[in-house]
């Protein structure tokens, strides 16, 4: 297969420290908030700097998940909960399907891309050869949710070498990511000329998920292997720490360019828009498309890790957190954002998305269940 030419990372960098330490109605803070909102409108993604985030915490988290996913299959299967739509515990490889493999609007988006900017072909792609672990980071609502399966209790692995490390490590890294993305939700609201609490309050009781994804690079470490097929996320915002292995590509909404993600070292995180934000904004902000593949940079890191850390498992772990709106929240497009979305569509001919979408009112929990059916998890 011909190797596609990759572009340099060119996402806006947003300074969360400025927002957290500054006066929210000061000109410099408002400018940074508008920069964040504009980044999501244009790219569907941004790089977030948060000095509270520790690279050491991320490293400890990655070590733990490498150890977890190197266990025998029979141990992993103990943590599987298909009856809960895999929304807690482990999802094993070849279970989750990329929606875009069969979704006509998504396939048309791929067709609109320049051939050199398209994802690896998923038209005949089997379910993804990735595993996941879902660890909920929920504040229990003061009411009875209509969607209990989306708000189930966590599973703690019972292996002796993991049990004591598990909850402290997951909670430490999960809280860092949750705090960062919840504060960013406030910035985005300000940047869209909405009250600062608009999105954060809507997500206060959301079934947020620390969701590391694992790919066995001994089994699936060949050039051009699709680890996670071209797709977008169903939640509100997705935030990622640095993975040890490259391979994540995203697509910028207004250019159709395929961008290899390179998160800078230190306290930087990648944030992508999800379907709930798209729905609430009436399509002003679109859920960002992305894929994870084995490319030449992945192969180079694999060889380097073999030399430097011969005792460590060759498993690619994504350091990922899904921030959700509350399951019982009414998902209805905000009129002023819908109007801006319509204006954007009429003014631009460079958008890669399909024809105008109708965002029907529904509960967030119903939207999540609809999406889970499409990816073979419900």
Automatic annotation (TrEMBL):
GO function terms (MF aspect): metal ion binding; oxidoreductase activity
Coiled coil spans: none
Domain Isopenicillin N synthase-like Fe(2+) 2OG dioxygenase: 226-323
Alphabetical list of Gene3D superfamilies matching this protein: B-lactam Antibiotic, Isopenicillin N Synthase, Chain
Keyword Metal-binding attached: yes
A UniProt-annotated Pfam family: 2OG-FeII_Oxy
Statement: the UniProt record of this protein carries the keyword Mitochondrion: no
Keywords: Iron, Metal-binding, Oxidoreductase
Family that this chain belongs to: Belongs to the iron/ascorbate-dependent oxidoreductase family.
Protein name stated in the entry: Isopenicillin N synthase-like Fe(2+) 2OG dioxygenase domain-containing protein
């Amino acid at each position: 297969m011909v190797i596609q030419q990759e572009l340099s990372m060119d996402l806006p960098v947003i300074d969360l420290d400025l927002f957290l330490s500054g006066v929210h109605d000061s000109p410099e803070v408002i400018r940074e908030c508008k920069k964040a909102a504009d980044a999501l409108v244009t790219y569907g993604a941004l790089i977030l700097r948060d000095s509270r985030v520790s690279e050491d915490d991320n490293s400890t988290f990655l070590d733990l998940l490498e150890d977890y996913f190197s266990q025998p299959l029979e141990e992993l299967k103990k943590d599987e909960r298909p009856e809960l739509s895999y929304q807690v515990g482990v999802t094993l490889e070849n279970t989750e399907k990329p929606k875009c493999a069969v979704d006509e609007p998504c396939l048309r988006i791929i067709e609109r891309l320049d051939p050199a900017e398209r994802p690896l072909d998923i038209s005949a792609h089997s379910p993804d050869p990735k595993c996941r672990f879902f660890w909920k980071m929920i504040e229990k609502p003061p009411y009875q949710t209509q969607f209990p399966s989306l708000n189930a209790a966590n599973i703690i692995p019972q292996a002796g070498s993991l049990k004591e490390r598990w909850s402290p490590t997951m909670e430490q890294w999960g809280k860092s990511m949750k705090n960062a993305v919840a504060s960013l939700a406030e910035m985005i609201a300000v940047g869209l000329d909405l009250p600062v609490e608009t999105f954060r309050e809507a997500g206060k009781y959301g079934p947020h998920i620390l969701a590391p994804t694992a790919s066995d690079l001994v089994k699936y470490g060949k050039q051009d292997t699709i680890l996670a097929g071209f797709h977008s996320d169903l939640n509100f915002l997705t935030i990622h720490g640095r993975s040890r292995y490259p391979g994540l590509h995203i697509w910028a909404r207004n250019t159709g360019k395929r961008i290899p993600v390179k998160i800078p070292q230190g306290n930087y995180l990648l944030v992508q828009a999800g379907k709930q934000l798209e729905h609430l904004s009436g399509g002003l902000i679109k859920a960002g498309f992305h894929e994870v593949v084995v490319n030449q940079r992945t192969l180079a890191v694999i060889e380097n890790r073999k030399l430097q850390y011969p005792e460590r498992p060759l498993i690619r772990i994504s350091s990922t957190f899904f921030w959700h709106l509350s399951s019982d929240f009414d998902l209805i497009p905000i009129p002023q954002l819908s109007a801006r979305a319509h204006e954007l569509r009429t003014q631009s001919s460079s958008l890669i998305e399909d024809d105008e979408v109708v965002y029907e009112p529904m509960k967030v929990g119903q939207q999540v269940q609809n999406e889970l059916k499409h990816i073979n998890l419900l």
